[in-house]
Amino acid sequence: MPRQKLNENMPLIITIVVTVLIIAVGIGLLSLSSTDQLSSEEKEKILVRDDSQKAGKTDSDITLVEFSDFECPACATYYPELARVKETYSDRIQFVFRHYPLRSIHPLAQTAAEAAESAGAQQKFWEYHNILFEKQNEWSILNENEAQQKFITYAEEVGVEDLELFTFDIENDTYTAKVNADFDDAEKLNVQGTPTVFINGKRAANPTYDQISATLDELLTE
Fold first, then answer.
1. Inter-CA distances, 185 with 2, 46, 49, 79, Å
2. How far apart are CA 125 and CA 70, in angstroms?
3. In this structure, are residues 53 and 119 in contact, taking their beta carbons and an 8 Å threshold?
4. How does pLDDT run across 150-202, given as a tens digit for each residue?
5. In the predicted model, is pLDDT for residue 77 greater than 80?
6. pTM higher than the cut 0.85
7. 87: left (phi over 0), alpha (psi -120 to 50) or beta
8. Among 3, 16, 66, 115, which is 20 to 30 Å from 26 by CA?
9. In the chain, domain spans
10. Got the DSSP string for the chain?
11. pLDDT tens readout for residues 121-153
């Protein structure tokens, strides 16, 4: 573009750039404000539902909530860190797992979450949770039908007793609504990605063992 023409269009270009920035900032502030408008009681209710998967000291004053996606590579990377936290603090802290399957980029995440819930209905949620992360590279490359068969194999491996019921559940969307409800709660809380960890309602900056244990140790001494 000739220099004169560029100079003539510069005010328009600046106006467009500024407008885009204002819109972007506005969207960011709007999403943040939607979370800020939640009362502590509302936020607590959204973070932990009656039917949420829980472990550890379930009557503890300290609760760690993880929103996660079984097909998410970052979640698999952080899985050993959070497993170590769970092992260290299981007698003092309540742990809650919530589903946030990023379906647009992880096509098997929803089915994996529903399979975990089916295993959970037979008291094997955490064992199934573990095997999904530990074998993520194995099942995440499969198509939907192949993955369902693999999920049935995993159910048998972790000791789910009624495999017929488990199979019925994942083939008939028994736990679709429950996983979708978790997803909706994550959206209300402005969860931006996985894994996202909340400790007593406050978002953890970095879900590593060192970061989380430092926060938990501080809370435990209060």
1. 53, 6, 10, 22
2. 13
3. no
4. 999 999 999 999 999 999 999 999 999 999 999 999 999 999 999 999 999 99
5. yes
6. no
7. alpha
8. 66
9. 3-37, 43-220
10. --HHHHHHHHHHHHHHHHHHHHHHHHHHHHHHHHHHTS-HHHHHHHHS-TTSEEEE-TT-S-EEEEEE-TT-HHHHHHHHHHHHHHHHHTTT-EEEEEE---TTT-TTHHHHHHHHHHHHHTT-HHHHHHHHHHTHHHHTTS-HHHHHHHHHHHHHHHT-S-HHHHHHHHHTTTTHHHHHHHHHHHHHTT--SSSEEEETTEEPS--SHHHHHHHHHHHHT-
11. 999 999 999 999 999 999 999 999 999 999 999
Joined tokens for residue 66: 């993880």
